[in-house]
Amino acid sequence: MTPPARRKRGMTLSQPVRAILLDLDGTLLDIDFRSFMSDYVTRLAEHFADTIDPEVFKGRLFQSTSAMIFNSVPGRTTLQAFLDDFSEAVPLPDDAMERFEDFYARVFPRLGHWGRPSPGGRELIEAALERGLAVVVATAPFFPEPAIRERLRWAGVADLPFAFVSSSDKMTRSKPFPEYFLEISERIGVPPEQCLMVGDEALMDGAAVKAGMQAALVGPEKPSFTGPWLKGTPLEKAEAPDVPRWPDLPALHRHLAKEGIL
């Protein structure tokens, strides 16, 4: 196994890179996120329509997603933060968890037409694995693991051996807070300064630098997928970290190979 490479000129860290964290939406998965979310919320609301008015359900789901982003209760997962916030305003039926599990098993896979593999994603992961690096799926923890695994299938990488996959049933913090990245660092046993975060959003993924990680962005700059939940909060006008950006994953792959990281 080839030992982890040290960053060369043009990379800011002198520590060896031992782990690569990869965002999902807009990075590994090319997705029409807003259309996907609209379809997802509508179908999930239909799954509870016999107990909760669909429009009430959809409105509460949107509001309770904020509780996931801003959760700071020690030891409480983002999933539990969502459930606590939702049920406080709109009581869930006794079989709510069974309904969620059934939805993600039977209905959620039908949303796959909204997403497709991002070119170069699989190749970059395979190159990292060949170098002996730990590879992490570091997506915002808004979905439980079965849904993340399904979306990895849409991205064409579900069969690869990830060191860790972030999900709402595991994570207690969310992007763009540094604690999210530190939580992953602790879980995989790799110091943050030896981690490289790869994503597409300066605010959400670039925040890894606040945790001491190196970060690289891919694709054109665009509004954050989570923008609707950040309105009216200090994060709405927060200045995004200055993080280098490459046109796409193949371009970043070539750069990392040139630098001896891949």
Features:
Rossmann fold; 262 residues; two-stranded antiparallel sheet; six-stranded parallel beta sheet; 2 domains; 38% helix; disordered N terminus; alpha/beta
In short:
The chain has 262 residues and is an alpha/beta fold. It has helices at residues 33-47, 54-69, 78-89, 96-107, 121-130, 145-154, 178-188, 227-230, 249-258; strands at residues 19-22, 29-31, 115-117, 134-137, 164-165, 195-199, 214-218, 245-246. The protein starts with 18 loop residues before the first strand and ends with a helix.
**Broad CATH class of the largest domain:** Alpha Beta
Largest sheet: 6 strands, parallel
> Which structural class matches the secondary elements?
alpha/beta
Order of helices and strands: EEHHHHEHEHEHEEHEH
The radius of gyration computed from the alpha-carbon positions, rounded to a whole number of angstroms, is 18 Å
Which runs of at least 5 residues are low in confidence (pLDDT < 50)?
1-13
**Overall residue-averaged pLDDT value:** 93
Shape: globular
- E-strand count: 8
How many helices? 9
Helix proportion range: 25-40%
CATH architecture of the largest domain: 3-Layer(aba) Sandwich
What is the domain tally? 2
Distance, first to last CA = 13 Å
Q: Give the CATH topology of the largest domain.
A: Rossmann fold
Strand content: 5-15%
User: What's the CATH H-level homologous superfamily of the largest domain?
Assistant: HAD superfamily/HAD-like
Lateral arrangement of strands in the main beta sheet: 5-4-1-6-7-8
